[in-house]
């Protein structure tokens, strides 16, 4: 089995660490808390670089426009700002923000010599696909300090004595359930668990895999492409994939750690190989297993799986024909239908 050696897309925290190392400045906007219906979600983040370019989103629309305007000021003033929004108030309605809830956004300056060890740890966790909790202690007049708690229980950075143990305990709880915390007493503390993206394993690097990989990346999956043909499985065709693996199916499953946060899609060049992918995937705890094919092909593969000893409960986990029925005909439309089904499995359960 081999992986592409070319450069892979850079994660957000890897970019922040890189900006710090290069002596550059930036601003990071992160949801602080929310009540009711709001346009932003946990894990939404917006990065404003010192050249004026941006990465990510904090929810779009008028709220994001206000956050960006504040971020430009924070970039100059180097003082953290907390922005509160009442989306049911008259001013919010006049501005087009009519969700009806309330929320706050933390707009935080990133400078080369501040919390560099914390962001380096976040970048390392990002690369290792491990969770990490980022803890921000909010002081007066925009002052703040930052630490991180790794998945291994290591506290990165310095925090005022007497509260380290309490903050560490709350951060561990946040890592355990994946939910952020905002504590107001005795100090204002925001605990942000940064969770790894779920992994989308696409077996088959043919024509459907290209738009599927792109869309999978856009909606928040770490995308892996697996095929036994290096002329198809390469980074030139899949520049947005996290990993491109040239491997036979059995060898790939022997190396990949397919867990409950993995989504397996089989769009290979033939039903024999699709059957092998499905047979291996159904022996794992993968959250989603899908296979492309006609109803006749699906029936044939399911019967073959029964002959191989798979129980009906196992076979029932298979999404086949793959994708939601939206009348898709083109390659791109088929990819949309598959991604829609992946999102449904991710948000509502498989």
Explain what the structure shows:
With 350 residues, this protein is of the alpha/beta class. The chain is elongated. α8 (271-281) packs across α9 (295-307). The mean pLDDT is 90. The chain has helices at 12-21, 61-77, 90-94, 116-128, 164-177, 209-218, 249-255, 271-281, 295-307, 312-315, 331-348; strands at residues 2-3, 26-35, 46-49, 54-56, 81-86, 102-110, 132-138, 144-150, 155-156, 181-183, 188-194, 199-203, 222-227, 243-246, 262-266, 288-291, 318-319. The chain has eleven helices and 17 strands. The relative contact order is 0.10. Helix content is 35%, strand content 25%. The longest helix is centred in the last third of the chain and has 18 residues, at 331-348. It has three domains: 10-24 and 116-195, no CATH class; 26-110, no CATH class; 199-348, NAD(P)-binding Rossmann-like Domain (Rossmann fold), CATH 3.40.50.720. Strands 1-14-13-12-15-16-17 form a seven-stranded mixed beta sheet, with helices on both faces. Strands 4-3-2-6-5 form a five-stranded antiparallel beta sheet, sandwiched between helices. Strands 9-8-7-11-10 form a five-stranded antiparallel beta sheet, sandwiched between helices.
